[in-house]
Amino acid sequence: MNRKEARERAIKLVDRMTLEEKASQLRFGADAIERLGVPAYNWWNEALHGVARAGTATVFPQAIALAAAFDEDMMEEIGDCIATEGRAKYNVQSAYGDRDIYKGITFWSPNVNIFRDPRWGRGHETYGEDPYLTSRLGVRFIEGLQGDGEYMKAAACAKHFAVHSGPEAERHHFNAIASRKDMEETYLPAFEACVKEAGVEAVMGAYNRTNGEPCCASSDLIGHYLRGEWGFEGHFVSDCWAVRDFHEEHKVTSRPEESVKLALEAGCDLNCGCTYERILNAVEEGLLDEKYITESCVRLFTTRFLLGMFDETEYDAIPYTEVEAPGHIALSHRAASEGMVLLKNNGILPLKAGACRTIGVIGPNADSRAALVGNYHGTSSEYITVLEGIRRVAGEGTRILYSQGCHLWKDNDEALADPAGGDRLAEAQAVCDNADVVILVIGLDETLEGEEGDTGNADASGDKLSLLYPAPQRRLMTQVLSCGKPVIVISMTGSAMDLREADEKADAILQAWYPGARGGLDTAQILFGQKAPGGKLPVTFYRTTDDLPAFDDYAMTNRTYRYFTGTPLYPFGYGLTYGKAAVTGAEVSPARTLDFGREEGDGALVRVTVENTGDIPVGEVLQIYVKDLECPFAVPFPALAWFGRIALAPGEKKTIEACLAPRAFTSVEESGKRVDGSGRYAIYAGFSQPDERSLALTGAPCVRILFDK
């Protein structure tokens, strides 16, 4: 069904509704209208990395881990799997009359905000710090989720629009100040792509104000950009209780009825919260014209018709047995291994099964289920922790010694232990003394980095105060790294951490992220060489937050790899693997290529020669960066313009063709106007960024070619 037909049907249906009935449809828990055959519907559902919060579903790796895979095709497959499971659950739950929250097929995902500062607790919900990477992955996830059938398979929602990335503690009253240049260059491109290219059905506004206007009632964001320049035709939803913030926190209105007026007139169709319960009051007072209620109601029912909620569809026959289907579980395992990033390896990895008679496994995340799943997760029918994975993979005859080592963040694991702390350190030392090799598993979970109100990290409302691991983990890491045995550090976090001590002393470091419900098996398989680590960092790992601007400063100066003038510990785009591959040549020619909205323009075709120079198969991520050599408005450092996963057999050589979009050769003026660049560019092709730190870590330079366009 096309949008024109769906809207026509929506108009006819809404025309038959009373004012009270229309108003009842603009809340996330929409009432049934029995006389019109309209069932109750709850719009609120989550699918960040699997259908969430409503029972069993495939729990894929967290979004940041999916981003680390740099795999567009896989993102679309994952979106399709999630939509299939969402439909399967919706079909059976609706049949049983269960239309509760988290039971619908309108998913408030993906989160395409830019992870501009590593302290932001919700950063692991995103696809990282780069607008190009975020846009590519967001578009493909949406396309997978919404499908290409006669009806929409599920409705996606790009959030949180816009210029939103902490601090969590201040989000309800915070005013994010962003220049027009930063908005066009960094904060808006992913949203634009989701709208113009993927046809995302919904957009969610952020809690904060941006340049003075509440995001859920912004004439600039909603009017100028979203429904104006980008031609968005779907529905707009507020973040949860964000409209209430208008009068209680932002103080841009004085009472709920005024907030209702402001939001609806700006084009906020659906209220996650309770403020739209005052719609009738606002109409009775003469504050609000009924036409705004009607139009929002039409938009919402257009979505419901597009989803086939009032028709028979090809998705009605999807059975409940598709939930956690074997193929979905296999895809989750693939995603976990593709996304894990090997940060250091002195040759100790991969371990040989059976070669180590005794392996010590230590750390608070070694046997933690919470560290597998991140936040906004469903329930898995099986969890495989890192410890359990190692037991399965290490081989018969290998002894596994285990110590938790410390609590995730408390001084002691036992409440009655010595207040001085460290009640598991002696045990950890005993494991080290009796092991041939030690695997130290440290990190965080959703109780230490997450959303304000949903986390146990009350001191920072879900954000991190620094890049440091919790104090008991730092104490444990120092002790283990000094034990005299080979040590492999596994970090399970959703963000950059201070790994300087591990970088100096550990034999290997693996960034495992939150790898999904069964991700401990994939971690172990990578350790023992049954799989190779395939990920690249979608964020910069800084040495310390002292290198960064203030957390609440939204200017992009000295943030992320495109602007950061310091030397990172591990750069964006960096990641090691097993085996050896090289970029041995590249050439570029002008070409007509596609840009946002599938519009053709003057881009470039880059042909890159890659070769496996080792004796084992290699999976790598080819990356192409562009630097304008003369434009005064260009970003300071080369920016990602293309990426793709490649597989090479031993000795194999391939030529990869990469189409660079016209936008890669533009720059943004201070006014926010995007203009053609200078015409003189340097193009870099390699398996990392073309920066000095990546070269020092990998020993593999990028191929540089000049391009006059």
Structural class: alpha/beta
Radius of gyration: 26 Å
Contiguous low-pLDDT stretches (5 residues minimum) are none
Gross morphology: globular
CATH superfamily of the domain at 337-538: Glycoside hydrolase family 3 C-terminal domain
Strand numbers in spatial order across the main sheet? 9-14-13-12-10-11
CATH class of the domain at 337-538: Alpha Beta
Tally of strands: 23
Please report the number of helical segments.
21
Q: How is the main sheet built?
A: 6 strands, mixed
Portion in helices: 25-40%
Mean pLDDT: 97
Q: How far is the N terminus from the C terminus?
A: 42 Å
- Report the CATH topology name of the domain at 337-538: Rossmann fold
Layout of SSEs?
Blueprint: H1 3-15, H2 19-24, E1 29-30, E2 41-42, H3 63-68, H4 72-95, H5 131-146, E3 157-161, E4 175-176, H6 180-187, H7 189-196, E5 202-205, E6 209-210, E7 213-214, H8 219-229, E8 235-237, H9 242-248, H10 256-266, H11 279-284, H12 290-306, H13 326-339, E9 341-345, E10 358-362, H14 370-373, H15 386-393, E11 399-403, H16 425-433, E12 437-443, H17 471-481, E13 487-492, H18 500-505, E14 508-511, H19 519-527, H20 560-563, E15 581-594, E16 600-612, E17 618-628, E18 639-648, E19 653-660, E20 666-668, E21 674-676, E22 680-686, H21 692-698, E23 703-708
Parallel strand pairs: 3-5, 4-6, 5-8, 10-11, 10-12, 12-13, 13-14
Antiparallel strand pairs: 1-2, 6-7, 9-14, 15-16, 16-19, 17-18, 17-22, 20-21, 22-23
Helix pairs in contact: 1-12, 4-5, 4-13, 5-7, 9-10, 13-19, 15-19
